[in-house]
Specification:
With about 70 residues, the chain is mostly helical. It has three helices and no strands.
Length: about 70
């Protein structure tokens, strides 16, 4: 059961979303940052999630799995 709870954490989108939410709540409840900084952090989190989604869609459209992809030298 513990593995089932941790399985979503393998996703980059889930990790970025969790980090973004944690920072937003920390700023709301005591972290001394401006509202503009919080909005910037949320914006970067959303941009990263959308970028990963586009990357995943491109890999799927090409018929490859992400683990099949080899780094370009």
């Amino acid at each position: 059961m513990f593995k089932r709870l941790l399985k979503p954490l393998k996703s980059r989108k889930v990790r970025v979303a969790l980090a973004t939410v944690v920072v937003a709540y920390a700023a709301e409840f005591g972290l001394d940052v401006s509202e503009g900084m919080v909005m910037t952090i949320i914006g970067v989190g959303v941009a990263l999630i959308l970028g990963v989604a586009v990357e995943d869609a491109g890999v799927k459209a090409a018929g490859n799995k992400p683990e099949d992809m080899k780094p370009v030298d």
